[in-house]
Write a structure and sequence with these properties.
18% strand; 617 residues; 6-stranded antiparallel beta sheet; alpha+beta; Heat Shock Protein 90; Beta-Lactamase
C-alpha cells in the first residue's frame, strides 16, 4: 500500500499564508458584490426619480392643454352653432401652441372645424373614432394614444374634451399635435450622455424618444418591457432595447394619461465603472497574496534549516547516545526543542538504568507468580477431586434409594405373580383346567412381568447421563419421576398431588432435572418418617409459568426446616440426618445442576406447616 508523501515546512507555511489570504479574497468578493449592488441600486433610484420627474412634467403639459380646451368649450359660439367664430377662436388659441391643431367633431367623428384647413372646406372623419366614442359616452376629458392625422398624415397625439349643450355632450373638441413636440420635454431634463428617454402610450407604443425617434416612433416597446410595465406602475428591469442592446430600463406610469415614461441606460455604461473597481480590488488582493507567499517561503527556509539541525541529535537519542548542547539556531522554538532533546537524552539514560532494575525485579516477581500458580493449580485439582467424590457419593446414595424404590415397585407385582402361580395347581386338582383358563393366567403373568421390566427400564434411564441440552416437557419428566417413588410414598402413607396449569417446555438436561425433583421428594419422605406426623401427609407439586420462567414448587406439611439451618441446607456435607442415613450432598448437587448446568435457580423456605422448594428455569 502506498503512503501519501509528507509535506515540507515550506509548503505548510505557504498553505498557511494562502489560508490566511483566503478571507481577504472572500472580503474582496463581498465588497465587489456590495459595490455592484450599491451601484445598481443608486442608478435605479436616480433613474426612477428622473422618470417620475419626467412623468410630472408630461402630466403638467397635458393638463395645461386640457384646461385651455375646457375654457374654449364654454364659448357661446358652440351654443349658437356658429362654427366660423369657433374657427377664429381656435386659431387665436393656437398662437400659444405652435405646431398644434384644433378639431371639432360630432358624434359620428365627422370633422366640423379643423384649424389646419380654412373654414368651409370639406373635411374627413377623424382617424381615432375610439376617442370620439369615449368622449360622447363618458363625458370626460381624454388623452388619446398615438395615431396618424387624417389630414396631415403625421404621427399625432390628441387631448379631447366634451362640449356640452343643454346638459348633453354635443361636440368633441380636440387639440392634436405631432408627437415630436414632446421631445422638448424629455430634452429639457438634460439626461446623462449615455441615457435616453422614451414615452409610451397606454398601448405601450412609442410616442417619442430622445434617441433615433425617426426610426422608432409608432413602434411597440420590446416584449420584456411591456410585461414589466403591465405588472407594476413603476420600477426597473433589465432588457434589450429596440436596437437590440442590453439596457437597464426604469419606468413610471402617469395616473392622468396612463402613459409611461421610460429612462434607458446601456448596461455597459453601468458595468464599466464596476469592472474598473473590481480590477483594482483583484489586483490588490493578488499582490498582497504574492507578497505573503514570498515572505512565507523565506521564513520557511530558515525554520527548515533549524529543524534539519535537530535530526542528528534525535538519531543519537534513538541509538541511546548522550546528546551534546546544540548551538547556532535562529528560531526560539527550535532552541527549546534542542534543549528538550538534550534533557530527554539525559532522562533516557536515567530511565534505562531504572528499566534494568525493574526487569530484574520483574523476573523475581514472575518466579513467585509461577510458584503461586502451581500451588493454586494443585489446590484446584484437589477441589475437583472432592467434587467428583461428592457426585459419586450422591450417585451411590441415589442408587441405594432407587433399589429401595424398585423393591417397593416390585412388591405388589410379585404378590400378584405368586397368586397366579398358586392358582394353577388348585385349578388342576379341581379339574377345572382348560386351555382358555391357562391362556388367561399366562397373559396375566406376562402383563405383570412386562410391568416389572418397564420399571427396570425407567430406573435405568434415570441414571443415564445427559450429554447435551435438549428441549423437554416439564410435565412428562415430573410424571415419570413421581412414578419412581410412588410405591415408597404409598408405603409411608404419603400422598402426592400434582397441579400443572399448562404444558410447559424448557431447555436443559431432563435426567438431571428429574434427579433434582427426586432428591427433594426423598428429603420430604425422610422428614415425614422422622417426625411421625398424625395429620394427613400430602406433598403438593405445583407447575406454572411466572415472568417467562418455568416455576416448579414442591411443598410438604412435615414441619418445615429450622430457621437456624435454613441457610446451610445447600452446603456440601450438611445433613440433619444421621451419618447412616445421608451424605449431605443431595441438595448441594441439586443446586449446582439447576443454577450452573441449566442457568436457573433453586431456593427453599418455610411455608405454612412445612417446607417449600422452588425451581425456576
Amino acid at each position: 500500500m502506498f503512503s501519501r508523501p509528507l509535506s515540507t515546512i515550506r509548503s505548510q507555511l505557504t498553505l498557511l499564508v494562502v489560508t490566511c489570504v483566503l478571507p481577504v479574497w472572500l472580503v474582496a468578493g463581498f465588497l465587489v458584490f456590495h459595490a455592484y449592488s450599491a451601484k445598481r441600486n443608486q442608478i435605479n433610484r436616480n433613474m426612477l426619480e428622473t422618470a417620475r420627474a419626467m412623468t410630472m412634467v408630461v402630466d403638467r403639459e397635458l393638463s395645461s392643454v386640457q384646461a385651455a380646451l375646457q375654457a374654449l368649450a364654454t364659448s357661446p359660439a358652440f351654443a349658437n352653432g356658429d362654427f366660423a367664430v369657433v374657427h377664429r377662436q381656435t386659431l387665436e388659441l393656437l398662437k400659444s401652441y405652435p405646431g398644434a391643431d384644433i378639431i371639432v367633431a360630432d358624434d359620428t367623428g365627422q370633422q366640423l372645424v379643423n384649424s389646419y384647413r380654412p373654414y368651409g372646406v370639406s373635411l374627413p372623419k377623424r382617424k381615432n373614432p375610439e376617442a370620439v366614442r369615449s368622449i360622447f359616452e363618458s363625458g370626460k376629458p381624454l388623452v388619446s394614444d398615438l395615431f396618424y392625422g387624417a389630414v396631415t398624415r403625421r404621427p399625432m397625439i390628441g387631448i379631447d374634451v366634451p362640449v356640452f349643450r343643454d346638459g348633453k355632450v354635443a361636440y368633441d373638441l380636440a387639440m392634436t399635435f405631432p408627437s415630436d413636440c414632446l421631445s422638448s420635454i424629455l430634452e429639457s431634463l438634460k439626461l446623462p450622455k449615455d441615457c435616453y428617454g422614451s414615452i409610451l402610450d397606454s398601448r405601450r407604443v412609442l410616442v417619442t424618444r430622445t434617441l433615433n425617434p425617426e426610426s422608432f416612433v409608432g413602434v411597440q416597446a420590446t416584449s420584456s418591457l411591456r410585461r414589466a410595465v403591465a405588472n407594476t406602475s413603476e420600477g426597473t428591469t433589465e432588457n434589450s432595447d429596440l436596437e437590440g442592446k442590453p439596457v437597464y430600463s426604469t419606468f413610471s406610469r402617469s395616473a392622468v394619461s396612463n402613459w409611461t415614461v421610460v429612462i434607458g441606460v446601456p448596461k455597459a455604461t453601468v458595468m464599466a465603472e464596476l469592472y474598473q473597481w473590481m480590477a483594482w480590488a483583484i489586483g490588490g488582493a493578488t499582490a498582497i497574496s504574492l507578497i505573503g507567499i514570498i515572505l512565507a517561503m523565506g521564513i520557511a527556509r530558515r525554520i527548515a534549516q533549524d529543524i534539519q539541525a535537530l535530526v542528528n541529535p534525535a538519531l543519537s537519542i534513538g541509538r541511546g547516545e548522550l546528546v551534546a548542547t546544540i548551538d547556532h539556531l535562529s528560531v526560539k522554538e527550535t532552541k527549546e526543542v534542542a534543549a528538550a532533546l538534550v534533557q530527554a537524552s539525559e532522562l533516557l539514560q536515567h530511565r534505562a538504568k531504572e528499566r534494568d532494575d525493574a526487569e530484574r525485579q520483574l523476573t523475581r516477581t514472575i518466579d513467585l507468580l509461577q510458584t503461586e500458580t502451581t500451588e493454586r493449580l494443585r489446590a484446584t485439582e484437589v477441589l475437583l477431586e472432592r467434587e467428583r467424590m461428592l457426585i459419586q457419593q450422591s450417585r451411590h446414595a441415589s442408587m441405594g434409594e432407587m433399589i429401595g424404590n424398585i423393591a417397593h415397585q416390585w412388591r405388589q407385582p410379585l404378590n400378584t405373580l405368586g397368586l397366579i402361580v398358586q392358582e394353577l395347581p388348585i385349578i388342576q386338582e379341581l379339574g377345572m383346567m382348560t386351555s382358555e383358563k391357562l391362556d388367561s393366567n399366562v397373559a396375566k403373568a406376562k402383563k405383570v412381568i412386562f410391568h416389572m421390566s418397564q420399571t427396570i427400564d425407567d430406573f435405568r434411564n434415570f441414571f443415564r447421563p445427559d450429554k447435551q441440552k435438549v428441549s423437554f416437557k416439564v410435565n412428562d419428566i415430573l410424571t415419570k419421576t413421581v412414578s419412581l417413588v410412588d410405591g415408597s410414598f404409598s408405603e409411608h402413607q404419603i400422598k402426592i398431588e400434582i397441579s400443572a396449569h399448562e404444558d410447559i417446555s424448557i431447555h436443559g438436561y431432563p435426567n438431571e432435572y428429574s434427579q433434582v425433583i427426586l432428591n427433594i421428594l426423598n428429603n420430604a419422605r425422610d422428614a415425614y418418617a422422622e417426625r411421625k406426623a398424625d395429620e394427613p401427609r400430602v406433598v403438593l407439586i405445583n407447575l406454572f409459568r411466572g415472568d417467562d420462567r418455568a416455576v416448579l414448587t414442591i411443598t410438604d406439611n412435615a414441619g418445615g426446616i429450622a430457621e437456624e439451618i435454613l441457610a446451610k441446607i445447600f452446603d456440601p456435607y450438611f445433613s440433619t440426618k444421621g451419618p447412616d442415613k445421608g451424605t449431605g450432598v443431595g441438595l448441594f448437587i441439586s443446586k449446582n445442576i439447576i443454577e450452573k448446568n441449566m442457568d436457573g435457580s433453586l431456593s427453599a423456605c418455610n411455608s405454612g406447616k412445612g417446607a417449600e422448594f422452588r425451581i425456576e428455569i
